[in-house]
Amino acid sequence: MAFPNSRPRRLRRTPGLRRMVRETKLSVDDFIYPMFITEGEGVRNPVPSMPEVHQLSIDEALKDIEEVVALGIPAIDLFGVPHEKDLLGRHAEAGDGLIQRAVRAFKAHFPDLVVMTDVCLCEWLSHGHCGIVDGERILNDETLEVLSRVAVSHAQAGADMVSPSDMMDGRVGAIRHALDAAGHEDIPIMAYSAKYASGFYGPFRDAAQGAPQFGDRSTYQMDPANSREGIRELYEDIAEHADIVMVKPAMPYLDILWQFRQQTNLPVAAYNVSGEYAMLWAAANAGWLDLERTMMESLIGIKRAGADIILTYFAKRAAKLLGG
Ligand code: PBG
């Protein structure tokens, strides 16, 4: 296998040959489209740092979902942008709460769409942390009780899957137990298993209005320097019966994604987060990058590294390019 007999360029000579030997293929089936749902009617607030992304009231969201479904995207994941917050997350678990109403409306109109819900308290707590606090301490086990009730309320509203993004210890097991006890043993859990304390969440915190008002998230989200700890989190979530495991963010953590792929046979998801989205848009708007080319290259890179499923704000654009 040496030059001049070996010439890798022979298989790159024409588009047809390149198509034949292409190893990784993106499909619209790979995508989950995250959406920000807010109160009111006729509300469509653009998120300044995330072009083409809006906070949508339920009626407006239905219009976007029609497009999502027409493009063949199989799933959406709902984040709440509530008007009312408190110290206990009561609005997150209300039977007639924002997300519960959204799930009912979306499933009624689009029964075949996979409607997933984010289970986390940061958008619902007045201080913006992902857990119940005592002073500046983020309480783990007390938070699990609330998260469990939130997950059950989403399942009761008809959610197809719940997705805890808080990084409290033991949340997958606690939610599994609560779902089973409430008769929802068929509802799967997509776990944010290795979620890093990342600066790339900046634009999301605009979008979801859930930035912490004191300190940061480094006592619960992971240190970006750690890879073995990510694998430890993976095994804990497997032991707690997660159905899908996730790495987040995606692009700066492709090595973690690759290790997840090697270590488990569960489906692996990656979250192409708000900052990854905003970076490409900002550079493209400055004329420095080609948006669609770098978007597709990012998504194929995430898939090549091991993701079966990609949460991405680019889902609609990418689906259009894929011929959806
Ligand atoms: C919080 C949550 C965050 C994201 C998803 N869920 C932000 C955070 O942890 O601060 C980030 C998503 C993104 O940046 O696109 N539960």
Q: What is the overall pLDDT average? A: 97
What would the CATH topology be? TIM Barrel
- The topology string of helices and strands comes to HEEEHEHHEEEHEHEHHEHEHHEH
Number of helices: 12
The CATH homologous superfamily corresponds to: Aldolase class I
The CATH architecture = Alpha-Beta Barrel
CATH class: Alpha Beta
Total domains: 1
User: Based on CA inertia axes, which overall geometry fits?
Assistant: globular
> What fraction of the residues are assigned to beta strands by DSSP?
15-25%
Radius of gyration: 20 Å
Q: What is the CA–CA distance across the termini?
A: 41 Å
Describe this entry's structure for a reader.
The chain has 324 residues and is an alpha/beta fold. The chain has one domain: Aldolase class I (TIM Barrel, Alpha-Beta Barrel). The chain has twelve helices and twelve strands. A hairpin with a 2-residue loop joins strand 6 (133-134) and strand 7 (137-138). The radius of gyration is 20 Å and the shape is globular. The termini are far apart. The protein binds ligand PBG. Ligand PBG binds at residues 118, 120, 122, 130, 165-166, 201, 204-205, 217, 273-274.
